[in-house]
UniProtKB/TrEMBL annotation:
It comes from Parvibaculum lavamentivorans (strain DS-1 / DSM 13023 / NCIMB 13966). Pfam families: FGase. One of its GO terms (molecular function) is hydrolase activity. Transmembrane segments: none annotated. InterPro entries: N-FG_amidohydro, UCP029730. Coiled coil: none annotated. This is N-formylglutamate amidohydrolase. Gene3D superfamilies: Zn-dependent exopeptidases (3.40.630.40). Keywords: Hydrolase. The keyword Cytoplasm does not apply. The keyword NADP does not apply.
């Protein structure tokens, strides 16, 4: 990891935003797809402005939930400052979808020749300037927690569309996870006990993705974690964002106080059989 000690803590020039950086180190909230903005010099990547209001550009409502959750848990949060169309912070550098050329029917002209093989200089620039600094910031916040003799719980906030092509998605929320069920299993049980929502288990996506954000920062470190997906129509408004953050905060506190949860344990990964498992 590059040394960031001399860089401003929360400069507008950074491709990430730190919220409540001095908060309690017991939790760390992440929001990879918080923004639909693009940095200076990229125009609109050749897309119509309306495309940046769609889910292809950012996770609608997720940033608001992350901010409210950070406040309710009094913990730091790291938010991406730029659109996933520039570079996807929830993908590894070797993932072919890290710079999308086609997303839900929209061709992205500014990404046409940007990958590790064609347009390699621009690809390397996006990784170095926008992708790596975000992940360095996450690592720095984890290191601060560990220096305080705390095992942080990582919560990644995302949102999903109510419908995907012809399929209506029945879930209000979903928990994505790999092999470490310390937090996901009791969290899903608690949410279902609320009685008024449909909760997905690795729905509408899977948490078994090598080199995604939580694989990189939680699975490989043995930290407890969960990726939260919330349906976009439920968190389009400030009221909805606050309500869903409150729902999750209400459950996360008691669950993460359970004995044994806050420990470094390596469970391995379905996505990478070579990853070590704690004995």
């Amino acid at each position: 990891m590059r040394d960031l000690s001399l860089q401003p803590e929360n400069s507008r020039s950074q491709p990430f935003e730190l919220v409540n950086p001095g908060g309690s180190p017991g939790f760390l909230v992440l929001c990879d797809h918080a923004s639909n903005a693009l940095p200076e010099g990229y125009g609109s990547l050749g897309l119509a402005a309306a495309e940046f209001e769609r889910h292809i550009a950012f996770d609608i409502g997720a940033a608001g939930v992350a901010r409210h959750l950070s406040a309710l848990l009094d913990c730091p949060a790291v938010l991406g400052r730029y659109s996933r169309l520039l570079v996807d912070l929830n993908r590894g550098e070797d993932d072919p979808t890290i710079v999308m050329k086609l997303s839900d029917g929209a061709v992205i002209p500014g990404n046409r020749d940007v990958d590790a093989h064609r347009g390699a200089v621009e690809f390397a620039h996006r990784i170095a300037a926008f992708h790596a600094p975000y992940h360095d910031a996450v690592e720095r916040m984890i290191a601060r927690a560990r220096a305080a003799d705390t095992v942080p719980v990582l919560i990644s906030v995302h949102s999903f569309t109510p419908r995907w092509r012809a399929h209506i998605r029945p879930w209000h929320t979903g928990i994505l996870w790999d092999k470490d069920g310390r937090l996901p299993v009791p969290l899903m049980a608690a949410l279902r006990e609320d009685g008024d929502i449909v909760v997905g288990d690795n729905e509408p996506y899977t948490g078994r993705l090598k080199n995604d954000c939580l694989y990189r920062h939680a699975t490989m470190h043995g930290l407890p974690h969960a990726l939260i997906e919330i349906r976009q129509d439920l968190i389009e408004t400030e009221e909805g964002q606050a309500a869903w953050a409150a729902r999750y905060a209400r459950h996360l506190g008691p669950i993460c106080a359970m004995p044994g949860l806050r420990a470094i344990r390596h469970f391995g990964s379905h996505a990478d059989p070579a990853l070590p498992i704690s004995q």
